[in-house]
């Protein structure tokens, strides 16, 4: 299994590989996890595979069914607004905390990320914009300093990836998203916590509307 590196426990590397298969839809939503096929493909025993499956189940990417085995989680379209609602509340709270408590150096790092986001938008590099967009959100969560909130947001965003298409490819959404980021950053830098919170919640609502 040449892709697996030595700096992580084997089951974590196996989880990474299966996670990639899920996000690329090589393992499609609702599909059964064939343990024998995966152990043969990866050249491993069932023990690390089953540990990896437990990790992915804890993230919500795999669903365990009694006497039937493990399946890639299917997200009901009606659940998408519920997931976005929770993410919006948490990220809005993180924005407010950053606006009120971040150091000048932390704000500079956030501003630097946004400049890169602007360049990606100008270059029409959607893949780069998507990566930097996620980095921008991650940086806000990091600065907020609540690791438990970050974990919940990360897990929920991974569940969204099971169903979600890249909403940034929709006509006009990249420009709209960039504008929303500008407003959020301006509110944070101005130390307007309530406004930053409101703008982040609205930003995620717009993302939800574009995604479904």
Question: Describe it for me?
Answer:
With about 210 residues, the protein is mainly α. The protein has 2 domains: about 10-70, Winged helix-like DNA-binding domain superfamily/Winged helix DNA-binding domain (Arc Repressor Mutant, subunit A, Orthogonal Bundle), CATH 1.10.10.10; about 75-210, Four Helix Bundle (Hemerythrin (Met), subunit A) (Up-down Bundle). Helices cover about 70% and strands about 5% of the residues. The protein has a two-stranded antiparallel ribbon with strand order 1-2. It is elongated and about 55 Å long. The two termini are about 35 Å apart.
Spatial extent as radius of gyration: 19 Å
* Termini gap: 37 Å
| CATH architecture classification of the largest domain | Up-down Bundle
Report the top-level CATH class of the largest domain.
Mainly Alpha
Structural class call reads mainly alpha
Q: What is the assigned CATH homologous superfamily of the largest domain?
A: GntR ligand-binding domain-like
* Strands, total number: 2
Q: Mean pLDDT, as a whole number?
A: 89
Total number of helical segments? 9
CATH topology of the largest domain: Four Helix Bundle (Hemerythrin (Met), subunit A)
Query: Helix and strand succession?
Result: HHHEEHHHHHH
Question: What would you call the shape?
Answer: elongated
Beta fraction of the residues?
under 5%
Characterize the biggest β-sheet.
2 strands, antiparallel
Number of domains: 2
Fraction of residues in H or I helices: 55-70%
Adjacency order of strands in the biggest sheet: 1-2
